[in-house]
Write a structure and sequence with these properties.
eight-stranded mixed beta sheet, disordered N terminus, 22 strands, single chain, Alkaline Phosphatase, subunit A
Length: about 525
């Protein structure tokens, strides 16, 4: 576990939660019916609480899913976590994983890929003592160069870390079910997709933008930066509409995102970030987000990174001053927080019976699974704690948790993605210098959006998930947008070249027939093994 360190004053306490819980419950128990127009042009009857806000449970949905919880983690290619699934080495002293009879295989490592890999090094198994300290280069251009026309053979040269004390072959390596035990158990009992990709190439902030809009074009910068090319963001730049801290070099977008569509449809939603709460304020009122942690390796990292909070790039959905919600009952609805919250607000709402219809969750930095102060065991503690808690709520019967990742960290995966959208800029190199294909980009003609990018893990944990199932449907980060649009908004799309127009569905990972329900699975957060609750 990480030891918590705070800068400035203590975070805002959840004052008056008990009162707000009672108020929320009373509001939910008394409701009135009102017509609501969906994105498909149809008129439906929607149940509103006494305070005038629509109940997530009462909203019309295409599927039985009334609550979607999207956990967006950091920097993991598919093979890094699932390359040998469902077979683990099971050495003495490590948690064991033995697949159930009939467990399906994935498009993972073959003997040739493990022992005669076309890269300069073979993948090596990492155990529970091996952290991800160095990381790899996951920039837009080097990732394309590593893919080498689809040969997938130049990762060491182009994305391997060259930092002092780092092994450039580390990005080739992988964990198995003795370390990624919880995720393998979730795959065993629910659904895993082995054909899901980053929407485009590029690092974390690009993945975050693609998650909520599928549009990283139209970037407006505060100054010159090589991370924006031909009007498209291709690298990490902090958002304009976030003062925690304010950044002299920043960018923003003026287009629409899924939050705008949810607001138009009267659907409750929120983005909940670890460390979002202001621990103090400067004399001018701007926030200080000082939550940080020291891990077992002695590394210190801030819990919050504004570039991982994609709605802060859009003025329409930003909470620039990190203002708290006005009440627990208001979480997920319009107020001064503008749908942007701390993770503590998520649990305040969930435990009060006010879980929003759509919740995006970003773990604090030390539990995101990426490089530096995090790692797979700290990530496991967070994910297991989240799902164990959600499974004990009445809302679980209509909930789906999606576990997915923002980028590959430049690490090795052996699968070349289909390229659905070409690009020709100075930072493209997938099929030749300055080229990711030779055709004009089909999505609005916008350059700098070569995609799909690297293959990433995608899991669904839900009573409605298929059990012990591997889905091969082609999906990407915007498949989340696609599901939200279909489930709540009548199939409305963002438009303006958003990748949601191309994205594959998540429905192959569900069984909505009603014949089978996936039972609850409680895990031990330390070992990832099944545990009684």
């Amino acid at each position: 576990m990480g030891e918590r360190v705070r800068a400035g004053v203590k975070p805002r306490a959840l004052v008056g939660v008990a009162v707000a819980v009672v108020a929320c419950a009373a509001a939910a128990s008394a409701s009135i019916a009102s017509p609501k127009h969906g994105g498909d042009g149809l008129t439906r009857t929607v149940v509103f609480r006494r305070d005038g806000r629509a109940s997530a449970e009462a909203l019309h949905t295409k599927t039985p899913i009334k609550h979607l919880v999207v956990l967006f983690q950091e920097n993991v290619p598919f093979d890094h976590y699932f390359g040998t699934y469902p077979y683990a080495l099971n050495p003495p002293g490590e948690p064991r994983f033995v697949p159930a009879p009939g467990t399906p295989s994935v498009n993972g490592y073959t003997d040739a890929l493990l022992n005669d890999n076309p890269n300069l090094a073979n993948p090596k198994r990492l155990d529970r003592t091996d952290g991800n300290v160095c990381g790899s280069n996951h920039s837009y251009l080097p990732e394309q160069e590593a893919f080498d026309h689809g040969l997938m053979d130049e990762f060491v040269q182009f994305t391997g870390s060259h930092a002092a004390g780092c092994d450039g072959t580390h990005g080739m390596d992988y964990y198995d079910g003795n370390t990624i035990t919880a995720l393998w158990n979730y795959a065993q009992h629910y659904s895993l997709n082995d054909n899901s990709f980053g929407t485009t190439f590029g690092p974390s902030h690009i993945g975050a933008i693609n998650l909520v809009s599928g549009n990283n074009h139209g970037a407006i910068t505060s100054g010159p930066t090589s991370n924006v090319i031909d009007g498209t963001q291709i690298g990490n730049v902090e958002p304009t509409y976030d003062d925690c801290p304010a950044s002299a070099l920043n960018i923003h977008f003026t287009g629409r995102n899924i939050g705008n569509l949810l607001n138009d449809g009267g659907v409750s939603w929120g983005f909940f970030s670890g460390g979002f709460v202001a621990t103090s304020r400067n004399p001018d009122g701007t926030p200080v987000c000082g939550e940080s942690h020291v891990t077992a390796t002695g590394q210190v990292g801030l819990d919050y990174d504004s570039g991982n909070e994609p709605f802060q790039y859009y003025q329409s959905t930003s909470n620039q001053l990190h203002l708290p919600p006005t009440s627990v009952a208001a979480i997920g609805h319009d107020d001064q927080a503008n749908h942007q919250y701390d993770l503590s607000d998520f649990w305040a709402a969930a435990d009060a019976g006010n879980l929003p219809a759509v919740s995006f969750l970003k773990a604090p930095g030390y539990e995101q699974g990426g490089i530096g102060p995090s790692g797979p065991l700290l990530e496991q503690q967070y994910i297991v704690g989240l799902i164990n808690h959600l499974e004990q709520l009445p809302s679980w019967n209509s909930t789906a948790v999606v576990i997915m990742y923002d980028d590959s960290d430049g690490g090795y995966d052996h699968v070349m993605p289909p390229i659905l959208n070409d690009s020709q800029t100075a930072d493209d190199a997938l099929t030749g210098p300055g080229q990711c294909g030779t055709h004009t980009p089909i999505l609005g003609g916008y350059q700098g959006r070569c995609g799909y990018g690297p293959r990433l893990p995608l899991l669904i944990v839900s009573p409605w998930a298929r059990v012990n199932y591997v889905d091969h449907t082609l999906t990407d980060q915007t498949s989340i947008i696609h599901f939200i649009e279909d489930n709540w908004l009548g199939g409305e799309r963002i438009g303006d070249g958003s990748y949601d127009a191309l994205s594959g569905p998540l429905t192959g990972m569900f069984d909505f027939s009603g014949r089978h329900r996936a039972p609850k699975l409680f895990l031990d957060p330390q070992t990832g093994e099944p545990a009684g609750m």
